[in-house]
Specification:
Helices cover 72% and strands 0% of the residues. 50% of the residues are buried. The longest helix is centred in the last third of the chain and has 33 residues. It is an all-alpha fold. The chain has one domain: Up-down Bundle (Na+/H+ antiporter like fold). It is built from 15 helices and no strands. The protein is globular.
């Protein structure tokens, strides 16, 4: 990393830390995630020379994976059968979300077919940017629409829940006793081994899923006790939040405002679909409405899982549904795009709903 890159990273983290401290002092939810996110977004749009290397997200997300895994217990296994209706309904839900988003982005947002398709697909942000670029879409527009979606979802849900009376701590922690020195070493090993194994096995979201599974296995077996210290969790949130905000750096302000406006309206449409779908699934499955909203929300996997942990709302289910969402969309989006591109090229209107397979 060059001296200039280090300078941009240091400035980004300093701005993010200031935002986190401000949110912490104000007693706001998820202070060390949302504070840095907002502060660096404002700094990015103001033209500050900030950047966070993509390579930093893996290790920091691995910390959250270990944290989520430390919350697993025997009751998780007992709840597996109750998740079946959610897993069965997920492909249909995603098909409806993508169809509505696609129609909006083409007919109202005015995006060309390649860009609209990959901007409408709420898979992993990095994965959709790469796939969209390979397909010939506008990578910056795709990145901005997805970044706006994640930013708004991660901000909207915690504050909406706080307004409803839910208590959301600044730094989430698993319901475990403090970890001893050997436990900390073992959890670090879970993070490193899980991250490398996840990448080797080509798991979806390997930086989160690998460490989470390794940590869960270690805790369920009784070999490891406790959870990562709050200070380390806060530092991981700082990097993740700062990276989201820094994505807006370098874009022309007018282009940013136009694309953000498009992304804002799209996010509101998606959140409406989330609420309606969560209500229907809650009636069908008996699962709490809140945990279903968090599981179906089109926000970041790490961010929504972290919020579920903060609320004590079954982070294992939330993480599992988001991981499955990313896996389905990353697999299906390129295949279904070929079919959609032929329809768009032939002059036919966007489909009412793409078939999910």
């Amino acid at each position: 990393m060059s001296r200039a890159q280090l300078g941009r990273l240091a400035l980004a983290l300093a701005i993010g830390a200031a935002g986190g401290l401000l949110f912490e002092r104000a007693g706001l939810p998820l202070a060390w995630l949302l504070g840095p996110m907002l502060a660096t977004t404002i700094a990015s749009l103001a033209g500050a020379p900030i950047a966070v290397p993509a390579a930093l997200r893996g290790p920091t997300v691995a910390v959250l994976g270990v944290l989520l895994g430390s919350g697993f217990d025997e009751a998780v296994v007992e709840r597996l059968l109750r998740w079946a209706p959610i897993v069965a309904a997920l492909p249909l839900y995603l098909a409806v979300v993508v169809a509505c988003a696609l129609v909006y982005l083409r007919r109202i947002g005015g995006l060309e077919p390649r860009t609209a398709w990959f901007a409408a697909t709420p898979g992993g942000l990095g994965e959709m940017i790469v796939l969209g670029d390979r397909a010939g879409g506008d990578m910056r527009t795709i990145a901005l629409v997805h970044s706006t979606r994640i930013l708004l979802v991660v901000f909207t849900i915690p504050f909406a829940l706080r307004a409803q009376g839910f208590e959301i701590p600044s730094v989430p922690r698993a319901a475990r006793l403090p970890a001893g020195p050997l436990d900390l070493v073992a959890m670090a090993a879970c993070g490193v081994f899980g991250y490398l194994a996840g990448r080797f096995a080509r798991l979806p979201a390997p930086a989160l899923l690998g460490p989470m599974l390794a940590s869960a296995a270690a805790h369920l077996s009784g070999l490891v006790h406790g959870a990562p210290p709050p200070l380390i969790v806060a530092a991981a949130q700082l990097v993740i939040g700062t990276q989201v905000g820094a994505r807006f750096a370098g874009y022309p302000p007018l282009r940013v405002l136009q694309t953000v406006a498009t992304g804002f309206a799209l996010t509101m449409v998606m959140l409406g679909l989330v609420l309606a779908s969560a209500w229907l699934l809650a009636r069908a499955s008996g699962l709490p409405l809140l945990v279903l909203v968090l599981a179906l929300a089109p926000g970041g996997l790490a961010e929504m899982s972290l919020l579920a942990l903060a609320l004590g709302q079954d982070p294992a289910l939330v993480a599992a549904v988001h991981i499955l969402r990313i896996a389905l969309l990353v697999t299906a989006a390129p295949l279904l795009f070929r079919w959609y591109e032929k329809r768009a090229a032939s002059g036919e209107p966007p489909p009412a709903a793409p078939r999910s397979s």
